[in-house]
Please model this.
Amino acid sequence: MKIAIAQLNYTIGDVEGNTSKIIDSIQKAKERKADLVIFAEQAVSGTPAFDLLRKTTFLELCEDALVTIASCCDGIAAIVGLPILTSQGTISAAALIQNRKVLRYVGKKYITARREMGFLVGSKGYEYATIKGHKCAIVVGDDLSRERDYDKSVETVISINARKYGRGTMTYRYEVMRNLSFVEGKNIVMVNQVGGSTDIVYDGTSGAFNNRGELVLMMKNFEEDFQIFDTRAQARPVVIPTSGERTRLVYEAARCGLRDFFLKNGYRKACIGLSGGIDSAVVACLAADALGHENVRALLMPSQFSSDLSVEDAKELAENLGIEYNVIPITEIYKSVVDTLTPVIGGRDFDSTEENIQTRIRTILLMAVQNKTDYVLLNSSNKSENALGLCTLYGDTAGAFSPTGDLYKSEMYDVARYINRTFGNPIPESILDKEPSSELHPNQKDSDILPPYEVVDAILYRMIEEGQHREEIVNAGFDSEVVEKIHSMIMRNEKKRYQFPPVLRLSMCSFGHERLMPLTNKYGD
Model:
């Protein structure tokens, strides 16, 4: 049987647009003489649809769209994902279409993603179907990793998915499929969602394993794709990408999420504050790549504490990328604000108050550009500083979207080096070489209050991603005072993380927009 795998980028709520894409792919599958064409979980509605899944009128629109899709399926079968309203609630279903009729719905049994809990209910799970004389098991979502012991007569397991990207998830996903296909002795065909949906990005990477546990088809990452898997063909095995590819995938995930955030919200142009530091350099490169250099504008806003080298580095980066930029010194604005406040706060020592005034002035200028010229402000944060609270509320926490807020500081350097290797060194080496600093007071360095970021990030990773207790981290060889300090900073700055813009989630545990588990529980304290 020839199975067409349609890996498409859907938009949440755009039932008409999603339906049009599906029908176009059905026509393409017919031209390629496919027997079956499969589409991702919740293809008709887009995902995560959240409250739309509770609206009867929206669910009816999805079912009406399915009737239109079925009318195009003459001479070909199709499996299409969509939400369906049942007497128990809304389920995530795979609709099986044959001979222009919707024969049945196969519902997802296990609701494991937080973004679906409270919006979807579980159904009875996978079912069998005979398509063109070929017996298949149809599976929706995470059921694939939980179900076993398929009937011996089943030749192919077809899984429709909406599996979001996270560092390391692809390796795990393909290992589950490889084990299942080898142990069960069946073909496994999986189609996944692709594209960004605000703070989530789906990687695509759909594929197929033969009944010997060999990967014989892997589709593109973070792009639409269309491929045919022939169950009768003797295809050569494909090599699964190694961990050395991880930085490339992180970069492509961030670029895809940024591009689709703008495209799907009707935005075109982005502005960014360029400081001459690593974070804003990476975001500027991402924006220029995702949106086109002609749609990116930068403001360089040095204060009296900014080094000449940082300003020159920022200028060189902007010119290398071909983006428009302006230099607006903020020294006089800063002095004016401080002088105005002197009757209230005068006579006290310089501290974070004066530092924060600088970052908030910069945000005022950037937001003015957004309001006057429709350049949407991008946030240039990173996960290390977000976690520790090394950021200013209503200052460098501002922006419509943060494409790098889920990347540790050390990962920002990895991505920057990848950008330079891949795109001809747009980031000046001096940005990569200089010691991290916010330049908010004379000779400031992040190392004044923290150990090197390699150490900080290793501790943060154990706390956040692995959920380790402080004692476990100390027992692993880290200094107890440093661990206690970092833990204290995390707990003290919870309020800041709740006031961030949407953060594109690139890991499995994020300080992103969706925070359903308090950090106090996450660390077991």
About this structure: The longest helix spans residues 352-373. Residues 510-525 have pLDDT under 50 and may be disordered. DSSP finds 16 helices and 18 strands in the chain. The CA atoms of residues 270 and 376 lie 5 Å apart.
